């Protein structure tokens, strides 16, 4: 069985109030993206790593790799207009069958345990999508009114989202739709059942300045 990891890094630094792309911000003296790639590189599954990055950022990434002496093997692929297109570009670089984990470049604290579980469940069940239960109360806003929602019926989706490659290839033959916000939504629309697995609260997505500060405390 062959294993792959597609690391999706198409974000910018706008919500971070920073001109530097989020995945290039420093976390413990090393760009966030390097922590993310290392997490998969150190997995017992030893996946081939495919980095999907906005074309405008390729040269900067290569310069950062040289500066930080980062020589973990990975293939760099041009990102697309939407996340959907970026993942599809990464998928097209895989010629064999196997299992592929798709992970946000800005989730650098993903644990080895979670990565292992995702690959194992996907191999057994066809896919594995990580999630956590919300700890806060949740309300739905519609027509300027809000209504309470039972949080026990909700989950918050994370990455990695891991799939049999054949399943993902079938799903990504569809045309893009705005409701395709993650890979699970694309695969579900193609008719496949989604298998949820327990994620980790520490597996945060760095989106705002305080997230980077929190990641600094969490990184080991």
Structural write-up:
It is a single chain. This protein is of the alpha/beta class and 220 residues long. The protein has seven helices and eleven strands. It is globular and about 50 Å long.
Chart the SSEs and their pairings:
Elements: E1 3-9, E2 26-27, E3 30-31, H1 32-41, E4 48-53, H2 58-67, E5 75-78, H3 83-92, E6 99-104, H4 112-125, E7 127-132, E8 138-142, E9 145-149, E10 156-164, H5 165-171, H6 183-189, E11 196-198, H7 209-218
Parallel strand pairs: 1-4, 1-6, 4-5, 7-11
Antiparallel strand pairs: 2-3, 6-10, 7-10, 8-9
Helix pairs in contact: 5-6
Please state the average pLDDT score: 93
The radius of gyration computed from the alpha-carbon positions, rounded to a whole number of angstroms, is 17 Å
Largest sheet: 7 strands, mixed
The helix-and-strand class reads alpha/beta
- Order of secondary-structure elements: EEEHEHEHEHEEEEHHEH
Q: Which percent bin holds the helix content? A: 25-40%
Q: Uncertain runs with pLDDT below 50, 5 residues or more?
A: none
Strand count: 11
Instruction: Please report which band the strand proportion falls in: under 5%, 5-15%, 15-25%, 25-35%, 35-45% or over 45%.
Output: 25-35%
Q: Give the distance, in angstroms, between the N- and C-terminal Cα atoms.
A: 30 Å
In DSSP terms (H or I, runs of 4 or more residues), the helix count works out at 7
Task: Tell me the strand order in the biggest sheet.
Answer: 5-4-1-6-10-7-11
Q: What global shape is seen?
A: globular
């Amino acid at each position: 069985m062959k294993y792959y990891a597609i690391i999706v890094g198409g974000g910018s630094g706008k919500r971070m109030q920073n001109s530097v792309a989020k995945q290039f911000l420093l976390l413990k003296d090393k760009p966030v993206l390097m922590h993310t790639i290392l997490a998969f590189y150190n997995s017992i599954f030893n996946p081939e790593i495919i980095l999907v990055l906005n074309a405008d950022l390729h040269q900067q990434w290569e310069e950062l790799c040289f500066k930080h002496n980062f020589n973990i093997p990975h293939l760099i692929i041009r990102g697309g207009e939407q996340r959907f297109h970026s993942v599809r570009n990464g998928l097209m670089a895989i010629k064999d069958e196997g299992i592929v984990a798709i992970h946000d470049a800005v989730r650098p604290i993903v644990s080895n345990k979670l990565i292992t579980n995702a690959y194992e469940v996907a191999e057994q069940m066809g896919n594995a999508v990580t999630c956590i239960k919300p700890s806060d109360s949740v309300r739905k806003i519609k027509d300027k009114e809000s209504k309470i929602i039972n949080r026990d019926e909700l989950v918050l989706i994370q990455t990695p989202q891991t799939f049999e490659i054949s399943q993902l290839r079938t799903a990504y033959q569809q045309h893009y739709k705005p409701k395709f916000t993650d890979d699970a939504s694309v695969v579900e629309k193609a008719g496949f059942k989604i298998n949820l697995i327990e994620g980790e609260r520490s597996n945060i997505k760095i989106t705002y300045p305080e997230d980077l500060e929190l990641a600094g405390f969490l990184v080991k």
